[in-house]
Amino acid sequence: MEEKVAISMAGVEQNRPHFKLGPLDLEVPAGYVTALVGPNGSGKSSTFRLLLDLAKPEKGTVTVLGKRVGGGDDVELKRRIGYLPENTNSFEDSLKAEDKAAFVRQWYPDWDVNYYRELLRLFEIDSSLKLGKMSKGMRRKFELALALAHRPELLLLDEPSSGLDPIAWKKMIGVLHRHMERGDRTILIATHIVEEVRRLADYIVFMDYGRVLGMYEKDELLSSWSVLFVQGEGRPEWLLRTVPGAIRTEEAGGSVRIVTSRAQQAERWCESEGYRIVARK
Ligand SMILES: Nc1ncnc2c1ncn2[C@@H]1O[C@H](COP(=O)(O)OP(=O)(O)OP(=O)(O)O)[C@@H](O)[C@H]1O
Question: Which ipTM did the prediction report?
Fold first, then answer.
C-alpha cells in the first residue's frame, strides 16, 4: 500500500536579505512523528511558517494534508492543524490565559474542552494568570495545551520543550505518545534534544543552510548517534561545520559537547585532528 503523505514541499524557495531557504523538497509521511533537526538558523522555523501560510515562498509548491497552501480557503485546513510556535507574542502579555483560550477555541469546531482541562490539570497551569505573568515553562505548557486541544491531524511543534523542567518534559512526551496512539495523526517537531528524537521520532530530517540534507529512519540512524565531549573551548561553531555528522555543538565547562549522527567517523576525525575525547555518551 502506498504511504500517505501529510506534508509535501516541492522546489520551495524563499529569499531573505541574508538567508536563502531552499530549494526544499520534502515529504513528511502521515501517521508518524518526524523530527526536524538542524543548527540555529538552518531554516526550521521558516519552514513551519511556510507550511502555515504565514510566509509565502517565491517558488515551489507546499501541500499540507492534501491541500495546496496559499490556494485560497485555508481556514478549513488550519482547523486540522495545531501549531506551537518557537516564540510567544509579547503583545499577548496582558491577556489572561483563559481569555486567550476562549478566543482560540472559537476557531476550532473540534475543540475538546474536557481534554483541554485535563491538559491544564496535568501541566499544573493556572489559566487565571495573565500570560506575561506566567513563567516561561508554564506559558510553554499552556501554548502546548492550546495546540493540542482540538486534537489536530497535523501537529507542528517548534522546539516544544524549551523552558520545560524534566517533569513537565516527561509529561509532554506522554501526552504526545497518547496523541499518536490512533495511528492517523502526524507530528513534525523541530528539536535540538537528542532524547526527544529518541523517545518520539520515527523519522529524522536534517536541515542546514536552508536545505534538507537528508531524511532517515530513526532506528537506522540512532545506532550511529553519540555525544562526545572534546577538550578545548571557544570553537563550537567551527566544530559544528567540521566534525563528521555534527548536529549540535556547545561549550560545556572547559570542553565542547558535540552531538553527532556519525559516531565512528567523528571519533576518528577527533583522533586525527588531535582533539582529545574526554567523555562519550
Ligand atoms: N522575518 C525574517 N526576516 C528576515 N530574515 C529572517 C526572518 N526570520 C528568520 N530570518 C532568518 O532566516 C534564517 C533562518 O531562521 P529560522 O528561524 O528559520 O532558523 P531555525 O532553524 O528555526 O533556527 P533556531 O534553531 O535558532 O530556531 C536566519 O538566518 C534568520 O535570521
Answer: 0.92
